[in-house]
Design a protein that fits this description.
Family: Belongs to the peptidase M14 family.
GO molecular function: metallocarboxypeptidase activity; zinc ion binding
Number of helices: 4
Protein name: CBPD Carboxypeptidase
Strand content: 5-15%
Pfam families: Peptidase_M14
Helix content: 25-40%
InterPro entries: Peptidase_M14, Peptidase_M14_domain
CATH class: Alpha Beta
Distance between the termini: 25 Å
Length: about 120
Amino acid sequence: GSVVASYPYDDSPTHKPTGVYSKSADDEVFRYLAKAYASHHPIMRTGKPNCPGEEGETFPDGITNGAQWYDVEGGMQDYNYVWANCFEITLELSCCKYPLTSELPKEWENNRESLLAFIEKV
């Protein structure tokens, strides 16, 4: 896990594991939507999720192009964009994939304003 808003493409023509910006035709729209979410999230907007084992990982403005972060061949986000013209971003909301129930109220507080801002943009 991490705390970042990721946008298409997740796959790149080179399939290099990481570091390749794979720009879609709607890159500006995707960046706008990802930034709308990230800019309202107290951790995401810093670009420094500080996840255990990945403390040095950073994301400018709390967003990333999927393939630049890591290449995913055949991912649902790209599939839906290419084949159904569905604009999706992927939200990584926690360093922990399965947070404890006791942590959920804090996760809600971290994401509430981001979610509302994102819905307003959509």
